[in-house]
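Before relying on records like the one below, remember that each one covers exactly one chain. Contacts with other chains, cofactors or solvent are not represented anywhere in the record.
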Amino acid sequence: MIKVKVGLRPIASEINLPTVLKTTILPGDSIERLFIATQVGEIFYIGNSSLRTFLDIRPRILKLGVSSGGYDERGLLGLAFHPEFYYNGLFYLHYSVAGTQGPGALPESFNPNPCDARTINLRWINRETQYDHIDTIEEWILQSNGGPQKRRTLLNLRRPFSNHNGVNSLNFSPETGKLVLTTGDGGSGYDPFNLSQDDLEIAGKIIEIDVGKNKYINNPPIVTRFNELPTTIQETLTVMAKGVRNIPGISFQRYYNQYIKYAGNVGQDLVESIFSFVHYKPIPVTKLIQASFMNSEPDKEGFINFGWRGWEGAFPASIIRGCTNNPTLDEKTIAYYNEAAALSGSRLQPLTSYFHKDTRPDKFGGTALTGVQAYMGKRIPGLTGSVVFTDLARKESQPQVRGALAYTTVRLNGKQNDFSVIQTDYDFGSQSAYYVNLGTNLNQTRLYLGVYGSMKVTDFNQGTVFEIVP
């Protein structure tokens, strides 16, 4: 793959953690505006070279960073504009709700032990009291004579742990016109309750929501499973994929008369993975519930399974232990052998992967995948038609942390591909630079990068949004 070098042009600075970067055309406007959503609950847009506030929902957001030393994966996680936003003013939010903090689903951190069946077969019980917080997905409207106003609630999701709630979690599919929600497996590590593979669990799925169907339903119950929803809401939902650990959004790339879908799955301890697929057959939630009621298996021909928790990308999910006789080496033990075996032939293989440890001179040791975007522009010819991705922090970039940019392409034969690191020429000086988000404009000809100077959501105003330029 060819070497690509890019520049970073600052667009907005001294903002809070940017979780979503998207463009749209405001009603009555004539050009696309870049919108920036921050984890703490602000939504800005760039207008006439200045940063303007579109919406501030900070009072609606759960208090962040209190119990985790400032680090947090909750907050304002998703923003999507309706395909007809210019005409109808509709947009959608996903956030963690203020005042919903619970004790969590487990009293201590979780590690599976293949020698102890109890750790392999845990169940999430007492869900109404043993949970961490509640996430909500809402429909809002930009009123013609005023500001944004909440219109209705689509889903209320009870989450077992604070992490793995998804980020950039709402996107509209250009194929189906439906709202796509990526939920994450619910958190902790190693998916303790195997929610991602359970057909009735909302966690660990990619879900399509038909926002034009039964659109007068409001105030849904707080749930964790599809069968707890009223039938009228079940009828608006289809499941596109399962086996998800945590996804930083989904990107659709037009290829002739169809779309390549890209989604990354954040890894556990070994590897970060980018997946791609064209054809898929989503399963209506009503059919999943019916099959469960009949104790049968629904038709899953064409259904996408990313393989988690049995598989971490291209590897069986593993527990890492240090070698007692050699501290420079470690031992990897398969965490869930039976699940890895059961999924070995039916899971989707990743398009490419990068590793948490990689000593090759042209690669890097990664930390966590934070963005995946198709690029169809021609200003950076080496990237045209590729999929670009970001990692939070290179392992070797201490003491000043630096994120990483890289790209890969889909092979016509459908086989896995390598990736290439994208070189950048920006001087961050003595400031750390965590790459926290990647965004694009409507026709995917521009790329935007969100950078933060800290891992803590409680360290304010350390964010910069860049455009990636030739």
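The mean pLDDT is 95.
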